[in-house]
Specification:
The protein has 274 residues and is α/β, with parallel strands linked by helices. It contains 10 helices and 9 strands. Strand 1 and strand 2 form a beta hairpin.
């Protein structure tokens, strides 16, 4: 998984109870303006909690747009230029520098990976953060890994009416979260849920895929769930990019060949193999 003196990440990691992720854990949340397309939104609110120490970093970001559309849902916070100015919002470049400083202060030099944990991370938070750093001409550090709590909670709390953060909190604790839809509020809500779900904060229970920057998580593909992800990892396919190489090189973009390959080598269920 790691190479060199700084043990830089080179591939995704599939954690199990017997082989947990060796990392400094951070619970984070990003609030965005714009659409839910990572290419068409900008971060305006950041919160990052070092889970072991409970040290917290928060910042308001100025996306530098001339105007701000209303939020797509009435419960979301309405961002305006006036609000950003009075809140002391800063450019993302300045906030990104402070985030790196905060991580170094709490996690050290990077010899041990950093696990960034959020709800719905793989669909929005991870790609949005990658794009924000790319606009600065920077790459996310290779030892930063990303973990999505959505598949974890689906396994931990079965048959919930909703796996959105607020309704799930209400179902588990019998009360609504104190506040929501600001990054710091959602970080504390998620931390409370995670502490309960991991029996007091034992990160060994956070099993499943951890993905470094620029690698696409397998569970972002339809029909690939926790079981299929584990089978694919065991067969040597650790991310979507591995599947693309297989499609283009090994199976020649030929669907029947690809299907037979997955069924024979990975033992995938029929739906996932299709």
């Amino acid at each position: 998984m790691f190479l060199g003196r700084r043990r830089r990440a080179v591939m995704a990691f599939l954690a199990t109870l017997e082989r947990p992720m060796p990392a400094h854990f951070y619970v984070f949340d990003l609030e965005m303006v714009g659409t839910t397309n990572p290419d068409q939104c900008r971060i305006w609110d950041v919160a990052l909690l070092h889970w072991p120490s409970r040290r917290l970093f928060t910042a308001t970001v100025d996306p530098a747009w001339t105007s701000y559309p209303p939020p797509p849902h009435p419960d979301l916070f309405p961002v305006t230029s006036t609000f950003l100015k009075t809140s002391g919002a800063r450019p993302f470049a300045a906030v990104a520098t402070d985030v790196r400083t905060f991580v170094r202060a709490t996690a050290g030099s990077g010899a041990v990976p950093t696990a960034w944990v959020s709800h719905g991370c793989h669909l929005l938070d991870k790609p949005v953060l990658e794009r924000e750093f790319a606009r600065l001409g920077q790459a996310l550090p290779g030892h930063w890994y990303f973990y999505d709590t959505l598949p974890f909670f689906r396994k931990r709390y079965r048959r919930q009416a909703s796996y959105k953060l607020g309704p799930l909190f209400t179902s588990v604790f019998g009360r609504k979260p104190p506040r929501c839809h600001r990054a710091v509020d959602d970080v504390w809500t998620l931390t409370t849920l995670l502490t309960h779900a991991t029996f007091g904060g034992n990160t060994r229970w956070l099993t499943g895929g951890y993905y470094p920057p620029l690698l696409t998580p397998l569970q972002t593909v339809r029909y690939i769930g926790t079981q299929a992800e584990a089978l694919l990892h065991a067969a040597g396919y650790t991310c979507v990019e591995d599947l693309v190489v297989l499609l283009a090189k090994t199976c020649g973009l030929h669907e029947p060949t690809l299907r037979r390959h997955f069924q024979a080598r990975c033992h995938l269920p029929r739906a996932a193999a299709h």
